[in-house]
Fold these 3 entries.
Entry 1:
Amino acid sequence: MSPLAGKTIVLWDALALLPPSILQSWQTLGIQYVKIYLPNDPIPDNLSEYDYHLSALTPEAFEQLREWIAQHLGTLNILIHLSAILHPLTPIEYTPYDSWQHTIDYNLNQPFLLINQLLPALKCSNQSDIFLANHCMHNTSVAYWGSFYVSQIALQALEKILQEELRHTTIQIHQLDLTQHPTPLRATALPASSPLPPTTSILEQINQILSNRFNRP
């Protein structure tokens, strides 16, 4: 049985890295999940009662999300954050400030707000997990990656801080390695790159981590 069975999950996946077929299969496993839609995301016609459309990317909107989850779900077992944005690769000298700020806000500040507001619900669970995606695609050179690279390194620092602060709680922090996945970000940044070899899927990474955590075969 899937280690996700019977869990309550909040999913932020604006890149649609988990296909609809997986989300449909979750329902048959008794998985209650909330998929977060951002203000500019296309909203499906069949939006379920447990999908949540953020009214804005502000602290107040995330507080409303926290209250909604407390009212409708109570406890929360798993938070999965897969989203990121990438503006065109540009030298720092020519990077507009609004582009820099937008990337930092989306890739770093919004995950912070999400975790900041949902930690109380995660603490209500006997065991809970936070999954943060690592999208860094550079090899040795970081030139031109600008705010995207800064946001990804800062997100890794946030992950380390959380690991230490939550060491004596039932919450664990995990990094999902998406550096070798054929994501939309990679297609945009590296359109001429060679096809990637088969790799462990995002769901397989999550299941393996949770199986190890719960000592399941």
Entry 2:
Amino acid sequence: MMLDDKLKASLVKLAPKILLLSYDQNRDVSDTMKQLWSTLVDVEEENRVIQERWEEIYDEAFKGIQTAEYSRNKLTSVRALTELMPNRNWAELKKHFRLVFLTCLASIDSEKDTMKAACYALGKTLKRITLKLGNVYTNGDEQELREVLSIVIPMILDDCLTSQITTVRLFGLDVLTEIIKSSKNQNIAEKLKIKNKYERQLAFNYNSQQKIKAILNEYMDRIIVEMVANASTMNQAVQKINMLEQLAHQYGWYRKSGGSKKKTGITESEINNLKNKFTKESLHGEILKICREYMT
């Protein structure tokens, strides 16, 4: 695609919209926009351009996900955010993070199958970002750690667990459970008894656990109450997981673990992990035990 310099300069101003349209559900549109994007932005310059224009891109995508449930623009924005957000840091994400997360979860229950699948993929992406940035062992920036958890934990307690949509409650419980479990280094006491070349790292781990304990203590009373109150919701999880598995088979989202060439959908191992997580009778006891330890 050849463009004269004047036209190219004009189109560069529209770069955020062009990038988002490269995720359009219409293959002809997405292919055309990808071609146009590659003409405007050299491959070696792409990361720099996205970095410099990220706020515009993020704002445009945020506007998109707030449009009507069956909007083509919403689906485009959800797909774009799924791919673009993992490459950004917390300072670039926090502006819209809470509302993007909640909008995504609400639309997982969409009647439109393509929207349901896209929002499920974005939900998994947001969960991974949360567990990476909200884990003291993978994020050494205490201020950032506090910011992430001060957004995500109240969001789960105030919005997800009070939602009338069962899927949203289940997703919220799942993320909250993982946050609490990932905060606890189960072998820390045993490891600290061993004096060897890893002692410095172990001391760091111990100090890290004290930091996360201080942060989580702000929410522990409410977390315990909500975990107990939502026990019945977790008991409904297996039925929902089975329905999800059936839908995945019915609409071609199901992927065999390991060998599948599909890049989207839900894998066999993800389904099995969900079943294991929500059918273990000890899950509530394990989480509540960790909570009570942090409170002492």
Entry 3:
Amino acid sequence: MKTTDLMKYLKSVLETEKNVYVLTQATNKLRTKIDRLGNEGKERLKELAKESSALVVSNVTERSSAYKLLRLLPFIGMAVGALFACTIIAPNAYAPTSFDRTMNYVVSIPLSAGVGAAVGGFIRWVGRDKKKISAKKAIKASKIVNAEYSQAYNEAINSDSKYLETINTKSNMQKYYNEMMDQLEQTKGVLRKLYSLDILHASYRNMVAVASIYQYYDTGRCTTLKGHEGAYNLFENERRMNMIISQLNIVIEKLDEIKASQFALYSAIKDGNRKIDKLIANSELALDYAKATYKNSEIIATNTDIIRQNTSFLSMYEFYKSMF
């Protein structure tokens, strides 16, 4: 194959790889938007229900803790009374003999402890929470809150015109998505046919390798694919020396870093990203205004361009197929 013919072939393959990249990324992003569309209110409702339930449980926990403290008040009063008798009453009471001093402790400690227990019991009785909620009732209250929010949500979506507009928009965005998915499958088919010509070795049938090999030919660094000075060998040497990045996901993350060494790939990804942004921006415009201009959209324009390229590349495929 002549060098000029090979360069045309490589450029066609690179363009087709770029179209597959654009449609794959755009459909993935659009699928995410479609799945989220109309669910924001519902998700927020669930959050509010959880928050409300948490408040109920927290309130129950606080009441339960306070009640437990009230139950301990008689014992606390008893301990305080006994301590008061040991440190204040008994040591300071009149006791001319050691027997009297002992009796002071024997008499004052039980009496003071009893008084303390009585005081604690009285406080417990006065401060008890007659509206204490049990854990079982808390769970029931939580379910009631969730049910109330669920009912409010159902009423809202049945009466809210914006929600209905959102559903219509979602339907139109689904049309966008289906259109792009059809084009993606067709473009993948074109790419498979171009590769099936076996012009390129199977190891180099990917976007990164094709872009690099095309750049070698375009800049005059290679005039053949095989051999010591061929494009395959040059690609392997640069990859082994870490002069180029050979994994597409890393290329996407570090796109600006490859501009000098892999300009053809950089340009293809950069142009692809611009197309992806236009496609997604068009779908967001439809979302914002709750209407989709399906017959006059960036998506249709992009798909039309891809159809044109696919038709052209299929003609090229038939031409090269006849040569082998």
